[in-house]
Amino acid sequence: MHRKTTATASAARPKTLGGLKSEGHRSRSVRDEVRANTLAALRASGNDLGALFPGIVGYEKTVLPQLVNALLGRHDFILLGLRGQAKTRILRSLTRFLDEAIPAIEGGELNDDPFAPVSASGKRIVAEKGDATPIRWIGREERYQEKLATPDVTIADLIGDIDPVKAATRKLVFADEEVIHYGVIPRTNRGVFAINELPDLAARIQVGLLNILEEGDIQIRGFPVRIPLDILMVFSANPEDYTNRGNIITPLKDRIASQIKTHYPLSIEDGKKITSQEAWLARDGSAPAVPEFLREVIEEMAVEARKSEFVDQSSGVSARMTISAIENVVSNAERRAAMTGEDAAAVRVSDLVNVAPTISGKLELVYEGEQEGVAAVSRHIVGRAVKTVFTRMFPGAQKLEADKDPDDTAFREVISWFSGGNRVELSDEMPTAEYRKELDKVSGLKKMAAKAAKASGDDAYPLMELLLEGLHQYSAIGREDVEGGVTYRDLLGEMMRQFKE
Asked: 493 lies in which domain range?
């Protein structure tokens, strides 16, 4: 066990093989090491799997139990899921289950265990120096390596090849093991090696991984000496890749002991936690105010996109969409504050117009979506998200859809005000005083928003704007998009205007 090496300060660690022996050091495989440290972390977590994987939200009851089982079973595994589901973050977090540091032969090419070297150089050093063999200590971060699979990756990159230059300069024959130039996998010996987007790896290269997974060794160009590796192999893949760009060959899938499926957040609350955790909102030390209901609108955008008939659902909708979206609306609020000379930046519903560039870059559209156009699809998604949150926050909103006459609903005072020929003009660049003055014109609007604000703790004015946009989404009032802003008016008047145009 490595209990002594973990607790011992760096300066007090043995510097030679003899020192390791006198300390009673015992080696263990990386799989045994990960298993033992996972068990220790489980016992210390107090039944909280999330504590084992900080920053991973929403997987406590689904993905993490399967992942921990794989680690306890000493399995190579693959994370299978759509883009933006934290697969790479999970793989990189596996270093938490490695020892703080392990000893290796100084000068050995493959992180050689001083008690059982596998490289020719490591064996030679131990044979020549015995107990005086110098030791270096490898930290856990050095023991994790990853490779993004691309079609141009070669066997030499991953495993290695004969190096004729080394043979010539050192006057060695090609039959000598020391002429091998090792690839990244053997150089991760006694560690964790990850391959991202595995299906993108050419089939003939995937074949080269078979021996590593099953027998734990490598062969290079038929080299007569097999090199046993101590390595934990982990992978990630997107299901879309299985048909669009490549495939995982059947023998390789058979050798990967566990397949773990990831997913998008199962609740709005989990989505909000992820977005708040990842988004950069603290600008110059102060975070612009983002109403809680607007955070929900942004998360609902992802929900709507993931069920939209215009979006290719096989590609998925990354969590990066909501992260970029909230950063964009905060940036717009910050820009407005700077332009108007105001100290405080507060996000408004009208700032959502600036999420279109974010949404359009994160979606793959089907044919119908391409026909509509990415801008129209983005507006549709935002509108549906606003409608969902509006319905949740304002009781009786469903009646707008059920009743033929919206004047008979709780919103009749607001709707009647617009029916009288009045209108509201809003812009994402309006100063706060002008913005509030424009909203205050609407009879009954502030009264309704105040009730929702009391329940949610948000400022009433953004809720007043949400109410107007929600009424438009229910076709109770009209809206005209104008340069630099939007105008809300009577629905019949808006229809007549469009008819005349």
From this structure: 403-501
Based on the fold, state whether residues 278 and 362 are members of the same structural domain: yes
User: What's the pLDDT score for residue 284?
Assistant: 78
pLDDT at 47: 81
User: In this structure, is residue 476 part of a structural domain?
Assistant: yes
Query: Residue 361: how many CB atoms within 10 A of its CB?
Result: 11
Q: How confident is the model at residue 414 (pLDDT cuts 50, 70, 90)?
A: very high
Q: Are residues 25 and 145 in the same domain?
A: yes
Tell me the HSE value of 321 on the side-chain side, using a 13 A CA sphere: 30
User: Residue 260: how many CB atoms within 10 A of its CB?
Assistant: 23
Q: Clarify whether residues 255 and 361 are in a common domain.
A: no
3-state DSSP of 93-134: HHHHHCCCEEEEECCCCCCCECCECCCHHHHHHHHHHHHHCE
What percent of the chain is predicted at pLDDT more than 90? 60
**Predicted local distance difference test score (pLDDT) of residue 403:** 57
The CATH number that applies at residue 25 is: 3.40.50.300
Per-residue model confidence (pLDDT) at position 389? 95
- Distance from chain centroid for Cα 264: 10
**Are residues 326 and 248 part of one domain?**
no
- Report d(CA 479, CA 489) in Å as an integer: 6
- The predicted model scores a pTM of 0.87
Number of domains the chain contains? 3
Query: What are the two backbone dihedrals, phi and then psi, of residue 218, each rounded to the nearest 5 degrees?
Result: -130, 155
Domain boundary pick from 375, 393, 411: 393
Domain assignment present for residue 398? The answer is no
Question: Under the phi-then-psi rule, with left for phi > 0, alpha for psi from -120 to 50, and beta for the rest, what region is 433?
Answer: alpha
Clarify whether residues 132 and 277 are in a common domain.
no
CA-to-CA distance for 38 and 34, rounded, in angstroms? 6
Longest Cα–Cα distance in the chain: 98
Q: What is the mean pLDDT of residues 437-464?
A: 90
